[in-house]
């Protein structure tokens, strides 16, 4: 089937498109309702802030729990918190009632999710929390529910219309729970000053892990760097450029600082019969673009793309070259 026929079939089936459009509109309405509550409901906003403060001041871990779709959202909230510096894990309430309550200590904190606030399976966790004085943060839409009334910090979400035409399948409600969970995780991240380098510790694999590498870990050092001193002849520069294979030569002064660079473009601009007899300072470009070895690989890629260059020297705080990075190093690491 051609793309044209696919487009035609989609356009012709208006019932499907109408259904998708209604669901998306309902989702947007739910997100707007959440933002409106945060802006206009002082209690709702205060409880969100209190939840962040309470979690941030605890010495233990965040234990997240819920049933059904709330449970799935809870798992994601726990995973997001764990990956952003807040020690968290998910416990299924049924498993908790059969021994996993022993995983929860008095130093921990519970985040319990239930849209109705009356989920029976959470009852034993609430009882346990009261007995051992474990604080409870709840995400529910019913402020008069058992869960909200027995929570240290009840976060009462606005009641919204589900995208499901029967109002049964948790859709918009799950989105609101997820949005609040993400907001708490990010507020905690910023509260503790969790950096990109910290993030790298929890994300060593995949493309994300590659982007979080430091360029000092990817660059070439020592004899691999194409370097010459001021006063060197251009004939030496051509040999250095060809042997090292970066298409560039760095020029350093007596103080060891990078004084300039000579690129393929510089050679073309100064091509003449007397080129090889000239010194490197006559050809080099001064004040070259450089980066710190502590820069993230993803940021280095952005610098290269914005500057339209493929090679950058790495310099330390004294402007001494300590490495050289080629865009191919980033590509091999999986940054792009």
From TrEMBL:
For this protein, the record's PANTHER family field holds: ARABINOSE 5-PHOSPHATE ISOMERASE KDSD, PTHR42745
User: Which part of the chain is the SIS domain?
Assistant: 51-194
Domain CBS: from-to ranges: 219-279, 284-336
Q: What is the lineage of its organism?
A: Bacteria, Pseudomonadati, Pseudomonadota, Alphaproteobacteria, Hyphomicrobiales
UniProt family annotation: Belongs to the SIS family. GutQ/KpsF subfamily.
Q: Which GO terms describe its biological process?
A: carbohydrate derivative metabolic process; carbohydrate metabolic process
Top-rank lineage group of the source organism: Bacteria
Task: Kindly state which keywords UniProt assigns to this record, in alphabetical order.
Answer: CBS domain, Isomerase, Metal-binding, Repeat, Zinc
Q: Name one GO molecular function term.
A: metal ion binding
In this record, what's one Pfam family? CBS
Binding annotation for Zn(2+): 92
For the site labelled Catalytically relevant, the residues are: 69, 121, 162, 203
Task: State the protein's name.
Answer: KpsF/GutQ family sugar-phosphate isomerase
